[in-house]
Amino acid sequence: MITKRTHFVTTTAVALVAALSLVPAGSAKADGKDFIAGALIGGLVGSQVQKNVDRNRAQQQQVYRAPAPRHSTTTKTRSYRSSLPATQEGRQIQSSLNYFGFNAGTVDGQLGRQSRSAISDYQNYMGYQATGQLTGFEQELLLRSYNRAQAGGDQTFRQIAAHPDGTRGLLKTYRSEIANGASQTGYTASNQQPIYNGGS
């Protein structure tokens, strides 16, 4: 990055070289005073050039250092990046839970503590055992209900308005419809083995 000072020094040096090259060469006489003046000027110009070189090197080699921690009397909470793998299935589960009002937090695909808590809330609401791990049926009901609600348009809004539990009520409505037409969908209540445990 060229600063104003660097530009000034560069321009001055170019002008000085151009002026010296255009003056015809002749005999020059210099005494000790001229020598001292020339040495001082040369030293000043050389010093500025060296400072600019050093500054440019320092900028190129500069390493970011985190600011020193500030000490305060308040309690600090640290957040750590989860070691759980982010998956598309995890994102779908989190989006579905959030849509139905079970706070799974940010949709990042990692089924961590907050997502498992939301899964337990979902299981409690639906009357299932709250394990924090979805069984095949529970997951399928959640994801299909979410997709159906997203595609339902006006009918979805009418169902939400008609149910006392609002958006969550869609889950029970859709589960009832599945139970009444279980032979068509292939769902059975006995399919209760956990299929996605979401990590530790």
Task: Kindly describe this structure.
It contains eight helices and two strands; from the N terminus they run ααααβααααβ. It is mainly α. It has helices at residues 4-22, 32-60, 88-99, 113-126, 136-151, 154-162, 169-180, 182-185, and strands at residues 134-135, 194-196. The two termini are 50 Å apart. The model is unreliable at 183-197 (pLDDT under 50). The chain has a two-stranded antiparallel sheet with strand order 1-2.
Secondary-structure-derived class: mainly alpha
CA gyration radius, whole angstroms: 37 Å
Largest sheet: 2 strands, antiparallel
Kindly, what is the distance between the CA atoms of the first and last residues, rounded to a whole number of angstroms? 50 Å
Brief descriptors of the model:
mainly alpha; 2 strands
What is shown here, in short?
With 200 residues, the protein is an all-alpha fold. The chain has helices spanning 4-22, 32-60, 88-99, 113-126, 136-151, 154-162, 169-180, 182-185, and strands spanning 134-135, 194-196.
